Amino acid sequence: MTDIVQSLTDSTHRAPQRPMIALEGVSKTYPKQRRPAVAELNLAVPEGAIVILIGPSGCGKTTTLKMMNRLIEPTTGRILLDGEDVTDVNADQLRRRIGYVIQQVGLFPHLSIADNIAVVPTMLGWDKRRITSRVDELLHLVGMEPAEFRDRYPRQLSGGQQQRVGVARGLAADPSVMLMDEPFGAIDPITRERLQDEFLEVQRQVAKTICFVTHDLSEAVKLGDRIAVFAAGGRLAQYDTPSEVLAHPADDFVAEFIGSGTAVRRLSLLELRHLELEEIVTSHGGAPTVPHSGTVYDAVDVMLAAHSPLVVVVDDDGQPRGALRWDTLVSDLRTKGPPR
Amino acid sequence: MGSYVQYLSENSSELIFYAEQHFLLVLYSVTFASVISLALALVLHTNQLAPPSWRRSLRVSSRETSLLLASAALTIPSLALFGLLQPVLGLGVTPSIVALTLYAIYPVLRNTVAGLASVDPAVLEAARGVGMGPVRRMLRVQLPLAWPVIISGIRTAVLILISIAVVAALINGPGFGKPLQDGLARLGAVNSFNEVITGTLGCLVVAAGYEIIFVVVLRFTTPRGIRD
Question: Is the dihedral angle over the CA atoms B212, B217, B218, B224 positive or is it negative?
Fold first, then answer.
């Protein structure tokens, strides 16, 4: 009983948008450069959210990310981690509390997969048994069989497997925050898609606060709860949900950056289960089907592939839930609730 | 040929003594040189003394300066160096070791620097990102990864020293330099040519001994993940 009360008060006390990471007036000017790479940036990353930092090269998105764990020291401003000012604390100890995953993965080639994952827990002085069980747990989480991979070495793994281990290493000491710098950027498109799906699945289980740098808009829309669009000079041009950014770009720069095709991109944000569908009638027999866990994007894909102006949306048990018509799609699409 | 075998068997205990001396002379010198070079390289790479904005230029300039000095030492003719050290350190073992140490620093230092620089920057960034400080980064990541290159530098130094060490006989140093120079000095006399051959072959035998040791050491000190 007290537990329930406790959790209720907890959830009410925790303001819904309480930032896990907050940058306050943060600027970075590199030595011998006149113009700042990041200027007077204010950014709040809500707890448990995936925030995507996106923008053209040289816009300061990576600089911003690296200031969060102080791999790059800000010139001015404050960094708050879970309400605590970490601008001046010991940087090495700070980094052990924050997961860090980079594009080149950077596994330690001379250490086994288990030892790579165990790096931070070892530094934190965990006992051996706890480390071993944590390593196995994480390998399971990222979809790798511990018995098979524990004792291998990085060079024996494919690029995709290495990055899975990279993510596991970042999660090892159960940090509340993960920083990811284009983690899937160097991976072939098919593996990347799969890693993204797995990543979302992992995030559903671990619910970390994640900052994620990418220059791939599709990736940003697919993974992000919120997107921060950076313009040259480290200016934060827009910071909003993916559908808002696509529907209402804040200025010309954002509009140009997201480019054409935003209407199609937005389709992938709309889940079929949130749509108001037509009643099923017998004449629909033989129409192609699409699972209701999919998005409108998937439905369009199925319609185009099957040359059918109509799809039947089915639930997890394969039972028809309703029908979606091409005409409705282009003229009058209605949702039951807000998308995401 | 038969007479040479007879010469060997008659002088075997003396020859074994020379081999032992030669081996140890090189061992001591190369050990000192390795310790000096490694310490130098590690301190240069991990120092936190200078303000951050200076560190990089300080590291580069101190590295280049020490490499320059070490290469200058290597260019001094060995005959001259042994002669120059004699007034200060006298004759015998000590000046021999000092001179050989000076010669060995360059190959070891060069390879240590090259090995440390060859470590993948992404690996070092990851090490920083997970919260390893400069010393831990050096000892846990950079040094193990650079180790095969460093070892090959030490190996080169050993080979160089084995041949330079014969010059140590000039100042009464130990090793195969003694029979070699005795033989050369009295060329034409009884057994003189045998002595010259023995001095030369002796160096080869010592070198072979070192090669075997290096194969074993490399095998057991290279981390499994980066072994060929």
Answer: positive
Report the distance separating Cα A224 and Cα A245, nearest Å. Answer: 11
Q: Is the pLDDT of residue B47 over 70?
A: no
Q: Residue with structure tokens 């560190």?
A: B55
Gap between the Cα atoms of A193 and A116, Å rounded: 25
CA distance B71 to B107: 9
Q: How far apart are CA B183 and CA B196, in angstroms?
A: 5
Domain range A272-331, CATH architecture: Roll (3.10)
Judge whether A119 is closer than 8 Å to chain B, CB to CB.
yes
User: Residue A316 is inside which H or E element, if any?
Assistant: none
Are A236 and A230 spatial neighbours (Cβ–Cβ below 8 Å)? Answer: yes
Range of the domain at B21: 2-226
């040189």: which residue's tokens? B33
* Chain A stretch 120-179, residues whose beta carbon is closer than 8 A to a beta carbon of chain B: 120, 123, 153-155, 166, 169
Distance, in Å, from the CA atom of B147 to the CA atom of B209, rounded to the nearest integer, reads 21
A155 interaction partners in chain B (CB closer than 8 Å): 225-226
Run of H or E including B212: helix B192-221
- Per-residue tokens: A60: 């300061």
Residue A5 has pLDDT above 50, yes or no: no
Contact (CB<8Å) A108/B120:
no
Instruction: Give the β-pairing of A177-181 and A320-325.
Output: unpaired
Confidence of residue B1 (pLDDT cuts 50, 70, 90): low
What's the fold here for domain A15-266? Answer: Rossmann fold (3.40.50)
Give the residue with greater pLDDT, B142 vs A340: B142
Query: Domain spans of chain A?
Result: 15-266, 272-331
Beta bridge partners of A81: A21, A84
Q: pTM for this one?
A: 0.81
Residues sharing a CB contact under 8 Å with residue A239, sequence separation 6 or more, in sequence order: A43, A226, A227, A228, A229
pLDDT tens digit sequence for A253-289? 999 988 877 777 778 888 888 888 888 777 666 788 8
Number of separate domains in chain B = 1
B215 residue type, one letter: V
Per-residue pLDDT of A87-129, as tens digits, reads: 999 999 999 999 999 999 999 999 999 999 999 999 999 999 9
Cβ distance A107 to B226 less than 8 Å, yes or no, reads no
ipTM above 0.90, yes or no: no
